[in-house]
TrEMBL record:
Pfam families: Methyltransf_25 (PF13649). CDD domains: AdoMet_MTases (cd02440). Gene3D superfamilies: Vaccinia Virus protein VP39 (3.40.50.150). GO terms for molecular function: methyltransferase activity. InterPro entries: Methyltransf_25, SAM-dependent_MTases_sf. It comes from the Archaea. Keywords: Methyltransferase, Transferase. GO terms for biological process: methylation. Residues 55-151 form the Methyltransferase domain. This is Class I SAM-dependent methyltransferase.
């Protein structure tokens, strides 16, 4: 991500941090028809959690995914949560303290495109609702670098409906981007690059992932609205 793009994203999330948790739960249910608790369970399932796992939560935000994992493992794990937005990390710190999970989860301000960890460190890299704000290939290269061979990557991200790749869809998306990029509050989202399920599957194959699985949810009332995809794979 270029410096000005990173600033746009951090500004967006700095402004959203105080209401993020309430808002995201409502959005997931309203836009994708899944209760937030069920959405988190769907992310947990392909993580294949085991005691003592080392886990990277890339773009941890307010720490919701790290906390769910640590709770499921009764604190018997080592999670590093990284994020580029101070206000989100401050909330994460408070949430982790409130749950007494400080021994299991540590936090660092860092970009998922430049992860401050050695090669072959983690059994699992999880990244929820954040990759569309990044240079996806650069971040995935980092996930692969820090993951142990045979480790898992689990990504949940906003995704594009196949219709966006038709001529009609391309024109519509271009107009949408033009209109929304002009509004400061929606610029960070409008700028983001969204992939279809097929494009995600091709990307996983490009990175040498195996045993990939995807689950996607779209807005039943609007076939043009972005959906969400949960994709997981094993990295050899
Ligand atoms: C929608 S929130 C998702 C937070 C959390 N993963 C969740 O599921 O609730 C997106 C987060 O991605 C973070 N983010 C965006 N680009 C990032 C990057 N390059 N590296 C690390 N974090 C990033 C933002 O600061 C924000 O906290």
């Amino acid at each position: 991500m270029m410096k000005d793009e990173e600033e746009l994203v951090t500004e967006h999330f700095a402004g959203w941090a105080s209401t993020y948790e309430e808002d995201i739960a409502k959005m997931v249910e309203r836009d994708w028809g899944v209760k937030y608790e069920d959405f988190v369970k769907l992310i947990m399932e392909p993580c294949k959690l085991r005691l003592c796992m080392r886990i990277l939560d890339a773009a941890t935000g307010t720490g919701l995914i790290s906390i769910s994992i640590a709770r499921m493992l009764s604190g018997n794990c080592k999670i590093l949560g990284i994020d580029i937005t101070d206000a989100m990390l401050d909330k994460a710190k408070a949430n982790i303290r409130a749950e007494s999970l400080g021994d299991a989860i540590s936090l660092k301000k860092a970009s998922a495109e430049n992860i401050p960890s050695d090669d072959n460190t983690y059994d699992l890299v999880v990244c929820s609702l954040a990759l569309h704000h990044m240079n996806v290939r650069r971040a995935l290269r980092e996930f692969v670098r820090v993951l142990k061979p045979g480790g898992r990557i689990v990504v949940a991200d906003v995704c594009a409906p196949e219709g966006w790749r038709t001529l009609y869809g391309k024109v519509g998306v271009a107009i949408y981007r033009f209109l929304f990029m002009r509004k400061k509050e929606s610029k960070a989202e409008a700028k983001s690059e969204l992939y279809t399920r097929k494009e995600w599957e091709a990307m996983v194959a490009e990175f040498g992932g195996t045993e990939s699985q995807s689950n996607e949810f779209f807005n039943k009332n609007n076939e043009w609205a972005p959906g969400v995809i949960i994709t997981s794979w094993i990295q050899n």
